[in-house]
Amino acid sequence: MKLGIVGAGMIVKDFLSISHLLKDIELEAICGTPRSEDTLNELKDKYGIKKVFCDYDELLNSDLDIIYIGVPNNLHFEFAKKALDADKNVIVEKPFTSTYKESLILSDLARKKKLFLFEAITNQYFPNYKKIKELLPTLGNIKIVQCNYSQYSSRYDSFKEGKVLPAFDPKFSGGALMDLNIYNIHYVVGLFGKPENVEYYPNIERGIDTSGVLILDYGKFKCVCVGAKDCKAPIANNIQGDKGCIYQDTPANVCKRFELLMNDGTSSEVNENNYEHRMVNEFIEFSDAVKNNDLERCYKMLDHSLIVSEVQTIARHKGGIIFPVDDFTETES
């Protein structure tokens, strides 16, 4: 599978560091802005990428099977749509898009053209996460779910000094919900589906959420998701049922070992992840789906991404966080 990469930032470098483990993926090309050309060429030489482009249209006109989009959040929709319009399969980094409406447009276009469209969201593909899903019935009736991903950002120091970087800029679709809490939303929605109601209580500075508490109401149980970039706390995911709980002390984006703690006093530790790096499993599954022309698997994950996109859009609007691309004709509940 011939892969074209868009971007030269941290997430792209992270992906390239594990690309040698992806036997079905050929690093055909990388594309960025003219000002990043030196970095692009360094990455080309380091990882054996065949071609460098500084023009996205030229990249799309080349012989590629799939495009991996690792650009700032606010550009995900524009770059993904352009790739789909050019009949290219697409992997787009999380968060899928800035708004639910954008997600629907991409989803409809991919299905119409019978193209693959994936959101690169790590936790859905970990063996540990799949094991948690398998063990849920042993917990009895779920009562409370808690996910806390609080990680103090060095960029917050700059933000307090008046320097606004993309991670804290509404123009770039930044903020704690889009950066950290989005992993919690994926984690919960992947296990329990679409919530009945969404509420978001953010700490807002200069129009962006530096941290916030997301409440997902599932009727018979409640879920609290905390995402913070302006403070830190022990990271934990807890799924509490009336027969026992699952406790995990790693972030939702890496989903490492977890404990199964039962009310009868028995406990066990589980760790079935087979790769140390968080990005390997997702890209293996992406390439396997494309290789086997498994659109059904792709579109099932796309349906999941749509629910997450709808949840984050509703949450932002209820919390008063508005992006330039927001369209208030979108349906909210």
From TrEMBL:
Lineage: Bacteria, Bacillati, Bacillota, Clostridia, Eubacteriales
EC number: 1.-.-.-
Broad enzyme group: oxidoreductase
UniProt keyword Oxidoreductase present: yes
Residue ranges constituting the Gfo/Idh/MocA-like oxidoreductase N-terminal domain according to the UniProt record: 2-118
One Pfam short name: GFO_IDH_MocA_C3
Keyword vocabulary terms for this entry: Oxidoreductase
InterPro entries hit by this protein: Gfo/Idh/MocA-like_OxRdtase_N, GFO_IDH_MocA-like_dom, NAD(P)-bd_dom_sf
Residues of the GFO/IDH/MocA-like oxidoreductase domain: 133-245
MF term (GO), any: nucleotide binding
Signal peptide interval: none
UniProt name for this protein: Putative oxidoreductase YhhX
Record has Ion transport as a keyword: no
